[in-house]
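Take a sample.
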Amino acid sequence: MGSPSSYLGALLRLPVQNNMKTDPPTASPHDPASNVVELMIRENVGAVIVLDDKEPVGIITEKDILERIIKPERSLEATLVLDVMSKPLIAIEVGRPIVEALGMMRDRNIRRLVITENGALAGLTTERRLLEVAHERYVMQNYDRIKRVLVEDLEKPNVAFLSTYPPRECGIAIYTSDVVDALNQLYAVGPPVIAAINDKGGYYDYSNIVKYQIDQDEVKSYVKAADYINESDIDVVNLQHEYGLFGGDWGENIIAFLEELEKPVVTTLHTVLGDPDPCAKRVLGDILEHSDYAVVMARVGMALLEQLYDTLADRVRYIPHGCPNLPFIVSETVKSTLGLKDRIVLSTFGLLSRGKGIEYAIRAIPRIVEEYPRVLYLVIGETHPEVRKQEGETYRQSLFDLVESLGIEENVRFVNRFLEKSKLIRFLQATDVYILPYPNREQISSGTLSYALCTGKAIVTTPFLHAEEVVSEGGAIRCKFRDPDSISRCVIRLLRFDNVREGFEKKSYEYSRDMIWPNVAMRYANLFYQALGL
C-alpha cells in the first residue's frame, strides 16, 4: 500500500473528465440576463455556459450578474447575455489532468473551468469539485475506504429516502427533493431512490426515482416496503419524520416498517415536541430506538432528545434545513418584474393552515399602513392539501374576511398557488421585510425561514425554537407570539431606519452561508457513511 501523499498524487493525475458536471446549463448570447438568473435559480447553479451555434463562447456567473447588472442598476430584462458574459472563454480538454486544471484556475484567478472535447462543450468543473476528489485531509482520515471506492471502483453506498415526494404538495416532499438533488451533485453516494408515502386516496405521477409507494394508512404496506428494501441493494435508509405523514395514532404505522427493516437508519426529525402527548412520545421513542442516528435542524433539538428520550449525544447530529445558494439582490431591482414597483413589500410564504398565524400579521397591517401607505403584504401559497381535505378553504376565507373588515384590501394580496421555486425566490428577493408570525414555540424547523435567510431578508419572527437560534445570532428581529402590535412595531422600526434594516439583511444572508444545499448534502453523505461504519 502506498502512502496517502502518493495516493493524492495519483488522484491529481486523473483526467479532469473524472470530476466534471456533464450537461451544464447553457444560454444563447442573445438571451436576456433575466433568463439566465431564472435558470441559475431553477438548476441551483452559479454559472451558465454561453453557446453560439453550439460552440462555447463565454460564461456568465453570479458575480457577472452582481457586478455588471445589479450594482450599476441595469435592467435584467433589457441586458443581453453577450453584454455581461466573461470572455474569451477559458477551457481545458477532457483528457488533461486535474492538477493542470487546478493550476489554470489558480493562474487565471477563476473558480469555474469549462471542459471541452475537440472544441465542443463536454462539461463544467469547479475548484471545489476538483478538490473534493483530491482532498488531502479526507484521504488521510479515510484512506482505506477511499482507496476501495476509487481505486477498486466499487459502487458508492445506495441511499433510500422514505418520505413524501413531489408532485405531492408537501413541505417534507420539497425538502426531500432538495436533499436528493444536492446529493446527486456531490457524487458521494449512489443515485438515491425514494419510497414515497401516499395519503389516503392519493395518486401521484412520480418520476422514475420513486421505486416504491406506501399507503400511509395500511400497515402491511410498510412491512412490504421494508421487505423490498431488505432484498434490494440499498445500503442505508433516511427516514423523513413528521407526525402527520404516517398513519395510526401519532404516525405509529412507521414502527412496523422499522421493526421489519434490516438496514441502517438515519432519521431526520422535522418536529421535536417539548411537551409531547404520551402517545406521541412513545412513537418517537420507538423511532429513535430503531435509528442509528437522528438529525435535528435546530441545535435545541439535541437537548430535547437527550432530556426527553435519553438519546445519547453521539447519536444525534445537527444539520441545518438547507437553502439555495443565491446572490444577494436588493429588492428594488426585482420589484418591477413582478408588478410591485413603488410598493414597500412585506411577505410570508408557505402552505396555509391555522398553525401559521397569518391572521396576526394581517392585524398588524393597519398600524403599518398609517405610516407607510405604500405597504403591500403578500401572503404567498395555497391552502395545505390536508387542510383542504378537512375544511376546504375555510381558513383562507377567514383571512379574506379579516382583510375586508379591516379595510386593507389595497394593502394585502394573496398569491393563491403553489409556486415554482424560481418564481417563489423572485417574490422573496422583491421583499423588504419578511414576517414569520408562527403562534407556537415548538416549531423546530422552518423551510420558509431558511429561504428568507438565503435571500438576505430583514426578518420579523416570533421566537419559535428554530427562530430563537437565528435571533440569538442577530439574523432576525424578535416579535411576541400572537401580538399584532408587536409585529407592527418591529416592521415599522425596520422600515423607518434603513441602516437597521440593511444590517439585518447582511446578518441574515451571512447566517445562511453554512446552510446552502451543497454543505447540507455533504453532512448527510458523511452521516450515511458513518451509519455504515465506513
Remarks:
- DSSP finds 22 helices and 19 strands in the chain.
- Confidence is low (pLDDT under 50) at residues 1-5, 134-154.
